[in-house]
Design goal:
It is built from ten helices and nine strands. The protein is an alpha/beta fold. The strands form two sheets. It has a six-stranded parallel beta sheet with strand order 3-2-1-7-8-9, with helices on both faces. Strands 5-4-6 form a three-stranded antiparallel beta sheet, covered by helices on one side. β7, α9 and β8 form a beta-alpha-beta unit. α6 crosses α7 and α8 packs parallel to α9. The protein is globular and about 50 Å long. Bound molecules: 2'-O-acetyl adenosine-5-diphosphoribose. 2'-O-acetyl adenosine-5-diphosphoribose (OAD) binds next to α1 and β8.
């Protein structure tokens, strides 16, 4: 299996969060990406996500996303878990699968998807629409819509998290790519592989919280390392 974070999309031009140039170096997450901020000031949170949504729509999957997609398509069993909300794994899966089924390369998106909205009241999901003068409302119940992403202070979808953990527990290898491994519960996923007797290979440009526990570290950019590692 593979667990990915913002670093795999860095070479696509999507900003990371915590390393040099990361979003949380210049923006305050507590004003933009918490459930409290959304309840206090939904427009500011909406504008931030609308900006990021427009930004990632212009970005393309890179060689790292593509190598990972090809690997899982060839293997025929799904195994990508991502913290990223940018949709780039899905786009790489669809591209690399061509006319075939992309399923084996589709990720479990444990932090949600920025291109989707969800009703804050009834939970109905819908494709995102451009942000207008008034905030978007649910077509079914009239409730306030929000980006379908996990905000700080919220629980992850328990079913998705359980699926990710099951994959990790059974995996003989967990490839951990481009994550600082500080945000829980995602950071615990590779530990489940280690506890199950499997190995962890960390692919990252820098050392992280996970490095000490990893079986093997590969220092380098995902877009270079993954094609070399996975073919
Ligand atoms: P971070 O920004 O915390 O970490 C990015 C990691 O990628 C760092 O360890 C970098 O060293 C590494 N990196 C940067 N460029 C790389 C490259 N080209 N190849 C390989 N590695 C590279 O991002 P995440 O760990 O993904 O949560 O952050 C976890 C969560 O915190 C995000 O999902 C988001 C954020 O707040 C939510 O939105 C809920």
């Amino acid at each position: 299996m593979a667990l990915t974070g913002a670093g795999i999309s860095a070479e696509s031009g999507v900003p990371t969060f915590r390393d040099a140039g990361g979003l949380w170096r210049s923006y305050r997450p507590e004003e933009l990406a918490t459930i409290g901020a959304f309840e206090r000031d939904p427009r500011t949170v909406w504008e931030w996500y609308a900006w990021r949504r427009g930004f990632v729509a212009e970005c393309q999957p890179n060689d790292g996303h593509r190598a990972l997609a090809r690997f899982f398509l060839a293997r025929g069993t799904a195994g990508i878990v991502t913290q990223n909300v940018d949709g780039l794994h899905t786009r790489a899966a669809l591209k690399e699968a061509g006319d075939g089924p992309p399923d084996a390369a589709l990720p479990i998106e444990i932090h949600g998807a920025i291109a989707r909205d969800r009703c804050n009241r009834c939970g109905l999901r819908a494709d995102a629409e451009p942000l207008g003068d008034s905030l978007p409302r649910c077509a079914a119940c009239g409730g306030m819509r929000r980006p379908d992403v996990v905000l700080f202070g919220e629980m992850l979808d328990s079913e998705l998290l359980a699926r990710a953990h099951r994959l990790a527990e059974r995996a003989d290898l967990c490839l951990v790519i481009g994550t600082s491994a500080v945000v829980q519960p995602a950071a615990g996923i590779p530990l489940a592989t280690l506890h199950g007797g499997g190995s962890v290979i960390e692919v990252n440009t820098e050392a992280t919280e996970l490095t000490g526990a990893a079986t093997v570290e590969v220092r380098g950019a995902a877009g270079v390392v993954l094609p070399a590692l996975l073919g």
